[in-house]
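Minutes, project check-in

Agenda point 3 was the complex the collaborators sent over. CS summarized: two entities, 711 residues total, and the question is how they sit relative to each other. Sequences were read into the notes so everyone works from the same version.
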Amino acid sequence: MRREGSAFAGLGVVTLKELSDHMTGMRMIVMEWLVVLLALGVVYTGIQQIRQVSAEDPFLFLRLFTRAGEGLPSFVSVLSFLVPLVAIGIGFDLVSSERSQRTLSRILSQPIYRDALLFGKYLGGLITIIIMLVALWLLVIGLGILTLGLPPGPEEVARALAMLVVTIVYAGVWLGLALLFSIVFRSPATAAFVALGLWLFFTVLWPLLAPYAAAPFVSETVQTPGDLLTQISVLQAFARVSPGSLFGEIVGVLLDPTVRSTQQPLLASLGLVLLQPGSIPGAPLPLVQSLLVVWPQIVAMIAGAILLFVIGYVTFQRQEVRA
Amino acid sequence: MRYRFIAALVAFAALLAPIARAEDAPKDVKGIYLMSDYPAVTVRPGETSTVNLKLQNYALAPERLTLSVADVPSGWTATLMGGGQPIAAAMPATNSSVSLELRLDVPKNATVGTQTLTIKAAGGTTTVQLPIAITLAKDLPAKLTLTPQLPELRGNSKSSFEFQLGIKNDSGKKLTVSLSAQTPQYFDASFTEGYGSQELNAVPVDPGQTKNVKLKVTPPNTAAAGSYKVEARVGAEDAVATADLTMDITGQPRLDISGREGLVSAHASAGKETSIPVVITNTGTAAAENVELTGSAPSGWKVTFDPKTIDRIAPNANKEVQALITPTEKAIAGDYMTTIRASARGESANTTFRVTVTTSTMWGIAGIGIIGIALLVMVGAVARFGRR
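CS then shared the predicted structure for the full assembly.
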């Protein structure tokens, strides 16, 4: 039966209900504490490092996010690791739990469309993550001001905000994926297992496998700097299949104004420096230019999040709910 | 046969010998002579003076000659010196001479007048005498002359002017001559010896001798074109000599490049021509003609100027040109150095401009388009699959 009227009737009700469920749920509390404590630990050790080494750095505050402490990864890499986990934790049973509790048909008998139900569930989950990320972001900034004893500049705040938005989009991708699995698989356990498996694959296995997958497309002999750059861009193209590496590339450029290309960190790990003839190395880029450098990656993540949701939406609309 | 050959050889040598000797010994001069270049001299009381003497032997066998000085006024001390020490006898070889010095210590209170001293050289066969007239003068005036070799020099305000000066001491004693120069304000003058680099304030000049010194005058960079007078002045005791020298300074253009209002930074987009106003100022003292502009930028960049050359910039005037800079299409966003150079015959200046390259936002718009398509797909899905 065709829907009549707005697809979003009842969207607010569903969103608010989902939000309150998440906020009061035990699972959410455990996850938030896990993330917040780990992030704070990482930032604290990062600050200890910053206070020892960098005395004069015009973008000292941004180092809070990117500097790794002793034995601990940086704040950004912890985020790229844990944000998918939180998104999967929230999203893996969004639809399938309604189904297993047999409440789905009861909800849909109310004047709420399926569209609004799915939008509401997605939005509720995303808002939960946003609240968590904003609180975390403010905590990091506050802790930074407290321990470093200096306020961040407007440019730094703008860059940190851009990083926050990108992190939210990154969470949106994984939430869309988890929602899709919760629609496709009837059992929440299966959905959780598949989503976590995919997450493990992308975070642990793919970085190891990508060079082998790229091997047929890479020439063996590297003679000129141009060859090396071509090789690196092919490897990057394969690595970008993983949303985690996309996220890493984006924040790597956004949080360091001196980075002019996404290949720069990779070259640096090889002990090489990207030198443009005649350019002044180390001169910071304006934020808009940094954004333009990683704009394709940002677009890919936003579009990916929307498409994952659309696939889930179409699947859900075609499903039978009365059983 | 053999003896005849030797005899011929001896005869030849006998013929040659007088010719060889003829140079230092005139044929008809023979004997011992006591000589002096100047047998009558003027000295000052209270000072030590020396008179150069020579004992010459022409064509005589060497002989020991006892030397003595007679008629020495009371209070005076006359010593004959040879080889730096007092001597009492000399022995010149045949056809050679012995140099002697008569050292005179004249007391301060000696009466003014002429005294005649007699130097005697007495040997077994010959005795020679030489009277030397010593005139006492209270004050022998010092006299100096100063002769510039090239009194008028020409150059620009960056060059230094070197005048060669000859200082002649026309008095009977060694003088320590002090050197000075009167120059226009802020001109720098220094004296050096011939080819030396050590600056001098004074030079000793032997009596009757000429000493060459160099006066180096450096005008200030800001000196305007024109003719400047420099007076070189030398003095010793109460003698003074001056020489008027002229420096003819021709003007020199000096270029200076900056952006409009002193700004040397600019923004440019990758692959797009940007025009940067460049102001060329002539801060020199002469007009700069035919100023050519060039620019060097990272490879792949294009730098041209509109206009390419400036015909003339008057002193203290400026001209503005447009530098048209096109960063390469593939330039990565960031700051780059571009050097702009202006050159007019012999004078050049350069300034480095910092060009901030921004990349085109066209691909950003394309990205927004892709996101728009994704949203359209969602709207389409909602419209197509929406159901109760």
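Noted in discussion: Residues 11-317 of chain A form one domain.
Follow-up: revisit at the next meeting once the mutant set is ready.
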